[in-house]
Every structure is written in C-alpha cells, then in structure tokens.
Amino acid sequence: MKKMTIKEQKRVMIEILEYFDSICRKNNIKYSLIGGSLIGAIRHKGIIPWDDDIDVVLDKYNYRKIVEILKKDNNPKYKLLTKDRVKDYYFSFPKLVATNTFVREEKCLQECKQYGIFIDILYYNNLPKDNKLFKKLKLLNSLLSRKKLDFKNESFKQNFLRFNKNLISLMIGYNNILKMKNRLETNNVDDKYAVITLPLRSIEKEYQLNKNIKEYIDVPFENIKAMIYKNYDEILKTTFGDYMQLPPKSERTIHGLEAYWRDKWKD
C-alpha cells in the first residue's frame, strides 16, 4: 500500500462529505457539520488546516434514517462501518469510509481491516441536563473506546487508569456497554436540551438548547456546499468560547492517523 499525503487525505474526506451530502439531500435529511468541522466551515471556509477528520451530526430520527439508507447503499466507493456490520470495528458510532483507502489510528488498541479515510456520523440526543446522567454517558463512551498505553507521552497514573478501564471494558463486553448507553439515552428524554452522543468536554460546554439545532443553512466548505446549523454562532460559543481566535500552536493537534491507498478492498 502507498502512503497518502495530507493533501490526498483531505481531498478524499471532501469527496466522502460531498457524497454524504448528496444522499441526505436526495432523501430530505438535514445534518450539520459539528465540532472542529463547524469551526472550519466558519473560520476557514473548509477543513481546519491541522485537522484530519470531518464530523457531522443529525437529530436522532434523521440519524437512524441515514444509517439505514447507507447500510443498503451499493456504491462500491463507500461503505458505512458499524459494529453490527463489521466484527472488528471498535467505535460506538458509524464512520462512512472510502473503500480505496486504509487507515490506522495509532492510539487505538485494535485494528479494523475495513477502516479507511472517513467522516464521523454522530447524533444529538434529547437528554436532561443532569450531571449524573452526563457523567454516566461519558463513562460509557470511555469504556467503548479502548486505547493503547503510552508511557512515553503520559504519566504512570494515566496509563494505570487506562489499563483498568480497558480491563473493565473487556470484562463487561462491548455489546453490553453499548446496550447500557442506548438504555440511558432512551429512558431519559428531555424537550429543552440535547447532548451529542460522544461528549468530550464539560456539561456546560456539551449541552445545547434544542431550539438551536432545528434550522439549517448551506455554506461553502472547500470546493463543495455543506449544511450547518443556522444558530452556529451560539452553538460554537457554548462549546468553544471565542472560536474565531486561533488556538496556540501547542493545541493544534491531530488524531495520529496513518493513511494509505488500498490495493484491494477486503470484506
């Protein structure tokens, strides 16, 4: 396999997003860029220069709808990876990947043979703004993400905690943890607030008012058109504060992906 350049990786990511966008528009499904991808759309009119992925988010109804559509999609250039379709897939959310590429993520404990250049597909869940529920959701997501120990860059304490977390996750079982997460989201519904299915920050930064994630607009994103929330400013300020300010160089981090052109797709 031939290693991909950063420029090639970003071109393929845009192609995946363009394809995802076309499927959504064809089926009257609304989505928004989110996180760093949403900042990129506003601040850079495209991918943040040091970023190496694209994230999209939908409401739960449209999320389920697009997942089913993409599962039945027969385009050989793209495949939706989910745990129920790919045995060695290890994320709790789907990724739409380009089948002519292969990716390794250096921090992940497992390797997925069908992993490739991707976009992440997330959803907002109507969950009450309750600290206990939020901490439980973060814990379950943490247990679903098994990562390698890294004594070179992290402390003994961090590695000790990660080792125990990986062990607990293995003992409980991936599918059981996923069922617990689904029960938490299904049994706790709220009309006022929504939280993304993969929260990474504090409760104050992760929750959004439902009214702010109901309307959408189109914006230029690199050489294509993409959807974002009309109230993007309030959403980004809640999560990132002054999102138009460039972060220090020390914080301009990437996921550590190794990307290659694939010789042949293997199911």
What does this structure look like?
By secondary structure, the protein is of the alpha+beta class. It has one domain (2-125, 196-261). It is built from 8 helices and 12 strands. The chain has helices spanning 6-26, 36-44, 60-72, 131-144, 156-172, 174-187, 203-206, 232-240; strands at 2-3, 32-33, 55-59, 78-81, 95-98, 101-105, 118-125, 193-196, 207-209, 216-221, 224-229, 257-261. The strands form 3 sheets. Strands 2, 3, 4, 5, 7, 8 and 9 form a 7-stranded mixed β-sheet that branches. The mean pLDDT is 92.
Judged by helices, strands and strand pairing, the structural class is alpha+beta
Total of DSSP H or I helical runs spanning 4+ residues: 8
Query: Which percent bin holds the helix content?
Result: 25-40%
Domain count: the total is 1
Instruction: Describe the largest sheet.
Output: 7 strands, mixed
Stretches where pLDDT falls below 50 for ≥5 residues? none
Strand fraction band? Answer: 15-25%
Number of strands: 12
Q: Could you report the average pLDDT, rounded to the nearest whole number?
A: 92
Between the first and last Cα atoms, what is the distance in angstroms?
Answer: 17 Å
Question: Rg, please?
Answer: 18 Å
Order of helices and strands: EHEHEHEEEEHHHEHEEEHE
Spatial shape = globular
